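User: What would this chain look like folded?
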Amino acid sequence: MKTFNNLKDSKDYIINFLRKFETDESLYGVCSEIGKNIQKNGDTALKKYLKDFDNFNLEFELEEESINDSFSKVSKKFIDSIQKSINRSRNFHKNSLPKSWNNSSGSLGENIIPVDKALCYVPGGTAPLVSTVVMTVVPAKTAGVKEVIVTTPAINNVISDEIVVAAKMAGADKIFLLGGAHSIFAFAYGTQTIPKVDLICGPGNKYVTEAKRQVFGSVGIDGLYGPTETLIIADKSNDIELCAADLIAQAEHDVEATPILITDSLEFSKKVEKEIFRQAESLPRKEIILKSFESKGLFFIVDNIADSIALANLIAAEHVSILSEKVVNNYKSILNAGGIFLGDDSAEVFGDYIAGPSHVMPTGGSARFNSALNVRHFLKYQPFINLSKKEVLSVIDEVINLAELENLDGHAQSALKRRRKMIGE
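Assistant: Here's the prediction, encoded as structure tokens.
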């Protein structure tokens, strides 16, 4: 892992390396070719990609009988845990639902309308990410989306019963067994058997992310998500064991995951590093964890722990966990973060599974302009205008003046004709 011992070097690295964006032309080309093939050849192309990439040759959509069969294969313990996660998630998102409004005269307002169809993409990868089902389907259903579809890869025709059960319990209307960039293009454009959706949400690998980038405009997307990242702010008085455990929890996701520590003590950082190696030794994903720290781990040492706020805003991490009591009370100064976790007890792991907010959060610095997945991603905001004659007359001269300034005579005439009719000119 890399360690930076002063504020200037830390900022320089964040600006020039950590948050430097480079276009992957090869990735763009591969995904573009897949998209064109799906558009042109539909199911024929989709079946070929599924066979080549996933060794998959089942029906695309899971039938009700198979869904019911999945329920018989999972434990009651699993169902109880998923239900609690769903309940907490639903309660959180209900509280954040915006409402349509209009002013007292009824002349102006905004209708809030859910999209008709949304796709929730759930990665397969090295583990069944059942939590991602809850974190995508629940806000979509809470927003009022008419048809919520879950798609997840079934590599070698192996179906994750846990994902199927979680999807049904969360309220998914349909479940498909498709993964990869080709599935994103299929749902964006529609094929003979794949319905075209209005919005696609959820994380995925770099090919899925690039496919989402390329279909934006044909459909809505929630965001472009890269590898997970957690930033922990801890001072020399904090618990070394917990700090190391929280960093490991994110590092084990993927070798590309980015675990970050900001602290005011080089000695503390060394103790955390030592503890990371000690804890990782007994974990099944040890190799992934250590590779993540080796290639992506970052330790920033500051003279004053208060400087961690400026660095955190510059990094704009997906998760920001504040262990330091010296910073907790000033957490509102951290403006760029997908989600903020306060104190020893509010570990990011609770956000991953059961706290309430979606764990689908902006990565790669996109917390500067994007938010954690929420009901608003699935809603359209449609303003309406219903002006009275009195209100029209109060603004019509300004409309004419501005239209004439822009040399749009047709616009000016549209307003002028109304004024003449209203005042009898």
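The domain at 42-221 is CATH 3.40.50.1980 (Rossmann fold). If you want, I can go into more detail on any region.
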